[in-house]
Amino acid sequence: MSDIKTPSEISKISIETAIAKADAPFLKLAILGFLAGAFVAFAAEGSNMAAFGLLADPGTYGLGRLVAGAVFPTGLMLIVIAGGELFTGNTLMLAAAFERRITVGKMLRNWAIVYAMNLVGSLFIAYVIYKTGLLSAGNGELGGVTIKIAAAKANLSFSNAFLLGIFCNWLVCLAVWMAFATKSMTGKLFAIFFPIMLFVASGFEHCIANMYYIPAGIFAAGNQAYLDSAFALGLSADALSGLDYHGFFAGNLLPVTLGNIVGGGIFVAMAYLFAYREQAGSGGSGTGKQGGTGR
Question: Span 7-280: which CATH code?
Answer without folding.
Answer: 1.20.1080.10
